[in-house]
Amino acid sequence: MARHKSSPPAIRRRGVGMLRWAVRVASSIVLWTALLHLSSLLGLPRPPLLAARPSCLGGGGGGGSNSSASSAVTVAAADEVGRLAPPAVPRRRVYKSNGYLLISCNGGLNQMRAAICDMVTVARYMNLTMVVPELDKQSFWADPSDFGDIFDVNHFINSLQDEVKIIRELPQKFSRKVPFSMQPISWSSEKYYLRQILPLVRKHKVVRFSRTDSRLANNGLPLKLQKLRCRVNYNALQFAPSIEALGKKMISALRKTGSFIVLHLRYEMDMLAFSGCTHGCSDEETAELTRMRYAYPWWKEKEIDSEKKRLEGLCPLTPGETTLVLKALGFPRDTRIYIASGEIYGGEKRLTELKTEFPNIIRKEMLLSADELRPFQKHSTQMAALDYLVSIASDVFIPSNDGNMAKVVEGHRRFMGFHKTIQLDRKKLVELIDLLEDQELSWDEFSTAVKELHEGRMSEPTRRKAIAGQPKEEDYFYANPHECLGVARKRREKLKHTEI
């Protein structure tokens, strides 16, 4: 009987215990979730449970000192909690900085873009603190835009904080110090920076690179550094919100009426003067372009044989030549073509043939109001950023010249899933065009030859061409960052290997 009387209290005690345990578990989950939200908002380090995670560089997020191993239970728990929390700002990488790196980017938008990716990678490799880049304001292509006028500074700093510390300006104690200024050797490996540049940074504390274009090798770098270059380019370098908003508006307007292609028609006055390419220009125009070339002493090449350069495939196609190529490739008359370029040399009359054959020509001015464009019109780099956004979103991208814009956009489109970019073989094209104009080829023969010429030149998966000792002749990293294209590659055929 006594046994019967004692049973209900025991059951009640067990019930109370279970209730207390359930309350504690629920409270722990609520507190844990709140802590994750607070950490994300304030940019604080995440709780230890989530600390063990893969880094972009292949090791731990703490600069290689943390172990990458963790138990399956811990990883599973971290994944489960991660589903409850919003995406967090990357955990800050803690490291002893060896000094400060200032960079002054030279050239146009895409030359500077690639340089920034290289310099973040260099700063990460040498454990430096990087100051937000300065942009070119002195060369012919410069405009008064600062980094924050073109790119989202906060996103740039925060998205890379698990790799490198980036600050907006030097600490006060260095503000009056004249930094040690130099130009790194072009196409250098990471070993050059470790052996020759790092000792200079340790000695001077602050080093400024006065030129940053093509200062890091295309090939032969560790995989973790190549992947970091991609991470900076395709994630950290987002355009400023005002540029992104207008770019989305332009793309939306183009998409409403179907597919479209982007023609990067590099036929501006500065390009023709710099390259010396005057095919199709009048004597007066040729003289004007020559005067312009001589007016800029840092354009080193002065005496240029335009026709010889054209036959070597080193000149941009003229609008008329481009029209013939588009027709030969089979683009129908009603193709909607967005022209990505600055002001075409010779004005609208130079586009007459293109507009006659392809009347659906679209420019920025047709997609945006005058009020929307006005803040950008005196900023060539910001205008180029709008063209960049439309170019990577297009169904087909066709550059008439193999410049920085063409290369960087091609690489970005590969990264997005090998979207079609037609890499025009200008050397063979001008031969075919001359034969057509001399009536040595019929139109059908010309069209067939052009199509056959560009089979396999549509951004199919392939490896970069590497030529030891000749970095200028090999393929550019940012046109084909094949180390970073694993996911995109699976959507297409198996990777093709190109024999050198």
TrEMBL record:
Pathway: Glycan metabolism
Localization terms from the record: Membrane
Membrane topology: Single-pass type II membrane protein
Keyword Transport among record annotations: no
Keyword Ligase: no
Transmembrane segments: 21-44
Single GO MF descriptor: glycosyltransferase activity
Domain of life per record: Eukaryota
GO biological process per UniProt: fucose metabolic process
One Pfam family linked to the record: O-FucT
Entry GO CC: cytoplasm; membrane
UniProt KW keywords: Carbohydrate metabolism, Fucose metabolism, Glycoprotein, Glycosyltransferase, Membrane, Signal-anchor, Transferase, Transmembrane, Transmembrane helix
Family: Belongs to the glycosyltransferase GT106 family.
Full protein name: O-fucosyltransferase family protein
Species this protein is from: Oryza glaberrima
Gene that specifies this protein: LOC127767220
